[in-house]
Amino acid sequence: MRYAIYSAAFAALSSKVLSVPLAGRQAPPAPPAAAPPAPSASPAAAAPPPPAPASGNVTDLDVLQFALTLEHLENVFYKENLARFSQQDFMNAGFSASYYSNVQFVAHDEEAHVNFLTSAISGAGGQPVAACQYNFPVTDVQSFVGLANVLEGVGVSAYLGGAPALSSKDILTQAGAILVSEGLHQGVQRQGLNQTASANIVGTPVSPNPVFTLASAFITSCPSSNPPLPFKAFPALTAVTKGSVQKQTQFQFTAPQGAQVPNPMFVTFVSGLDTISVIGSNENGMLSATIPAKTEGQTYVFMTNNGIAGSSLQDNQILMGPAIVDVLPDPPSLDFRVQ
User: Fold this and answer.
1) Over the stretch 186-240, which tens digit does the pLDDT of each residue have?
2) Which residues pair with 304 in a beta bridge?
């Protein structure tokens, strides 16, 4: 039953991105990246050009502002729902008093992250972004926990993916300290859903533009006084496959209505430090691809303009996405010869 809770969360994060006045919503077209040799496929029309990454140099202050934007979202998400649901509501839904206590600690941490980043941005001479207005698809305790689980995973990926843009070692250390906290939060939520807390041996870095795509799905408006952020949203993919699934099964999803789906269609899975592309299929608008064997845990699914294997996914390779799928890990194996 707990796996079913994930369904609403994935659908929410994969749904059409709402209009958000944080910055320009859609990046201007850019030429596709040069494609390496593609997997074998039938002759095809050229893929449409992907949205360009944010123009100009991203500064340390931009990264801090983006982190604060995400922390505001998490802070409001937890506060709004802990004010709505009591401990008894959680227990009636099958969660323990211990889990409820841990969620309160998580909410406390998110508030502290907001205060910490606000102070850091002010100290650097910047104007901290304020909280926005949000629309979270939470109808009950189960949907709250499912969405909390996914949001914490996105938080981990955001801090990992933003690290390469930082030039200050001091700020990198501070971001790493918050990353540890976000990883613990993700473990709390996964265990609350009876999932493997550490489903992948490493976290999954995701760069700011795809994270912005996911976060902006919940943002309805922001204060006009907020400094604009130099990040753009990609066209969203909507997951049709629900819940936690086995690797090497079919992941089904849809593209925005009217979007040009290339043929061949490269579907790229980002899981941990692995980036793996496969050729997907398109059956009258129902898109699908086989989940690679090397994926585990919260995995991000993109439509890309070429096949990618081993290297990090670059923004100019992304056509649409990400959608999110939770992939069940293999059973643990131990080699007692390793000392």
Assistant:
1) 999 999 999 999 999 999 999 999 999 999 999 999 999 999 999 999 999 999 9
2) 266, 318
Pairing of strands 250-254, 286-290: antiparallel
Percentage of the residues of the chain whose pLDDT score is greater than 70: 83
Please give the distance of CA 328 from its chain centroid, rounded to a whole number. 17
Query: CB-hemisphere CA count at 13 Å for 271?
Result: 26
Do 291 and 249 form a contact (C-beta atoms < 8 A)?
A: yes
The residue behind tokens 């859609």 is 26
**Cα dihedral across residues 205, 211, 213, 217: positive or negative:** positive
pLDDT(182) > 90: yes
Q: What is the pTM of this model?
A: 0.85
Distance of CA 242 to the CA centre of its chain: 16
Q: Which residues lie closer than 8 Å to 180 by C-beta, 6 or more apart?
A: none
Backbone angles phi, psi at 53, to 5 degrees: -65, 170
3-class secondary structure, 164? helix
CB–CB of 302/321 below 8 Å? yes
Question: CA–CA separation, 9 vs 174, rounded Å?
Answer: 29
